[in-house]
Design a protein that fits this description.
- The chain has one domain.
- The chain is 45% helix and 0% strand.
- It starts with 21 loop residues before the first helix and ends in a 5-residue tail after the last helix.
- The N terminus is likely disordered.
- It is built from 4 helices and no strands.
- By secondary structure, it is an all-alpha fold.
Length: 119
């Protein structure tokens, strides 16, 4: 325990010569820009009027657009799937559309793979 009159000990920090990869640096969300913004921007309050919701979602998407881990965030929200909020620049409704398209694409790929090539 430090007493008020004792100075803090500081350690010299030597800069690393190599930039660590994202995996080495920690979980993707530690780099997310939204960690520094108000959480209310990304999640709707109850009974939010439509105009207010659209404005809030656009503001959240602007934050996402400058985020270095937007793609990781989006994939997390699609794989979970996260049912609420703006994640990776997409609203919950937009994520449902992406998931439906992926399911259709995967089904089409399976059908194509199952049909023998004509020869």
């Amino acid at each position: 325990m430090l007493l008020p009159h004792q100075p803090l000990q500081t350690a010299a920090v030597v800069p690393s010569q190599r930039v660590p990869s994202r995996e080495e640096a920690g979980p993707w969300h530690s780099e997310a820009v939204c960690r520094r913004d108000e959480a209310g921007l990304f999640f709707a309050p109850s009974k939010e009027p439509t105009a207010a919701r659209l404005a809030r979602e656009e503001a959240a998407k602007r934050v996402c657009a400058r985020c270095p881990v937007m793609i990781e965030c989006r994939e997390h929200a699609l794989l979970q799937p996260e049912p609420y909020g703006v994640w990776g620049g997409l609203t919950a409704a937009e994520r449902r559309v992406v998931l439906a398209r992926r399911r259709r694409r995967d089904a089409e790929l399976q059908r194509t793979a199952a049909v023998p090539a004509a020869g």
